[in-house]
Amino acid sequence: MAPDRLVVGFDLDMTLIDSRPGIAAVWDAVSSRSGVFVDSALAVSRLGPPLAQEAAAWFPPERVAEAVALYRGLYPDTAITTSALMGGAAEAIAAVRKHGGRVLVITAKNTPHAKLHVDHLGLDVDEVVGDVWAEQKGEVLREHGATIFVGDHLGDIRGARAAGALALGVPTGGLSTQELREAGADVVLADLADFSFWLDDHMLERRLAALESELAGLGSVLVAFSGGADSAFLLAAAVRALGPDKVAAATAVSASLPDAELEPAREFAASLGVVHHTPRTDEMSREGYRANAGDRCYFCKAELVEVLAPLAEELGITHIATGTNADDGRAGFRPGIRAAAERGAVTPLKDAGFTKEQVREASLRWGLPTWDKPAAACLSSRIAYGLTITPARLARVEQAEVALRAVLAEAGVPVRNLRVRDVGDAARVEVDAELVELVTALEDANEAVLAAGFDVVEVDPKGFRSGSMNELLPNPQRYR
């Protein structure tokens, strides 16, 4: 099962914002109006605890409430506009957003003033909770399901520990790295600029653990192995979780599979000690596939899973797994995912929350040769919707792509992503956006595609993008 949604809490003063100039100015004004000396420089050197605690250091007990009221009355007009973001603060919040997480600000500062700071600096947060300190912060963290709390003070570490959350310290508020560690911080960063790198690594480890648990619970899997980065990583993860005897790979052979994909798939499976099967699929026999409407992928995936099901039964394997990742699951147009799910296929990468970026990062860590393999959808994805899928059309596209890659390699053009889209008698070539002008001007590239059987060739000025054929559908939602 996927990890729970990420929720991260941040302290405010000296963690997300530097509010010292404004707070010093407020204390100076309080001192002037009350007639009680307050060393504002000393006061701002120990931000973190509740306001009343600092006031008690300067005022007699009977005047603390008066000092707090005066301070808070002066604060909005004196302290807000002089505050500034700490280095890396905006990037830290963006990192949480990147992983689909929620952001909380939890601070001893009163809530209205904290919100004024957040609004003034444009911080993208979900909720601001003020007037809490130390273990009280832990209560808020638990209430919101936060698993990480970032702060600069010992009280922040105490709050995280009380909630059972990871305590991340930043030595930007006066405490040293050593002091934060001795207080129980699980991690001490140099500053918030390091947070995004730490979070990327933390989330990857978290999802690797979830994936291992997911796969181990399946008992045995037959991986629908296209040879691409996702299914290759899934196959390697399954072997790690279950051992090669409980895992098999199946690459469906048909007119829609480029010939160049099969041998690398065999070699990859063999490198893992996994038996590689190559059953034939006949999606061309399905009218819905040949018709090539917006739901073509539904019929292709239905054919695949229905061919793999008896193979899995013959092998004594309990589950068929596809390489669908979390990004695929969030996309609005994936009829193939629906077809596989209806036929009982499982999606361990998606269920563990793995994004495409995380698949590539984990594959690189594991030394998998597919970690940077370009996306390689089936040949039928090159045929414009509404044009009948035929073996001849698929062969023409494959021939054009092979020839074009050869020409570009000979010309020293470092193409990574390349598609030849069949839009009728014309071919629409998509390459990496930065190469569009170069390929457009290369006459040999044009000739290579024409030689495959197209009458006209055009290079798409927008460059390569996965699923570009979907842009031509009038209403993709009807095919979901």
From TrEMBL:
This is Uncharacterized protein. One of its GO terms (molecular function) is sulfurtransferase activity. Coiled coil: none annotated. Transmembrane segments: none annotated. It comes from Actinopolymorpha pittospori. InterPro entries: HAD-like_sf, HAD_sf, LarE, Ni-pincer_cofactor_biosynth, PGP-like_dom2, Rossmann-like_a/b/a_fold. Pfam families: HAD (PF12710).
